[in-house]
Specification:
The chain contains 10 helices and 6 strands. By secondary structure, the chain is of the alpha/beta class. Strand 2, helix 6 and strand 3 form a beta-alpha-beta unit. The protein starts with a strand and ends with a helix.
Length: 237
Amino acid sequence: MIKAVTFDCWDTLLVDDYSCQSKQEEHLHAILQEQGFQTSLDDLKEAFLRENNMRREYVVEHRKTKSAMQRLETVLELLKISLPFSEMVTVADYCDKIALEFRPSAVPKGREVLAALTPDYRLAVICNTGWHSAGTIKDLLAGHDLSNYFDFFSFSDEMGVAKPHPRIFEMTLEGLGSHPEETVHIGDAEYSDVVGAKGVNMRTILFSGCNDTYRENNSADFMIDDYDDLLSLLHDM
């Protein structure tokens, strides 16, 4: 019998539309122009793309995520550019908090399903951070009236480990007071969400409503495209 449910954040609770990255790139490009660098916006976008690929490899290898400052440092290293530390702090803070200005939308029916789950299940968020810190993501969730439904939050920048590391799932289970076999994790990614949760014997549901990359190739116990049937699915698990 399922007694607790954990949720990934991006493309599970909040839609990751990547619009913030364009704002980050444009902001850094303007700063570089002010500092006298002739880096083109295209070159900057390429550096962001390369950094993102390196970031994915880092998570796989180290089971940790990088902060906005660390990611900015990598982008600048790829461009062979140095900025004063005070300027880097300002840019990194902008990259983190820009999401609060251009707020991503909530996944459809997410708040409704959380409200329906609250009376019968303990709920938690398990989220890998990156450009946006735990504090920023919590503000985004609160802005959509989602945060109050959760009993526990696990963010990789606060926990020190990232999905699929078993420890972030184990710490969440401890925080919920729940056993793995009575807990199901819902997320959009095969590797970090499904494989990670299965690694500690949790049940898994792949959510493909926003990201359908793994719809045809996943190892989840169940898959859903929206939250219409989640309650009945949990009841039958």
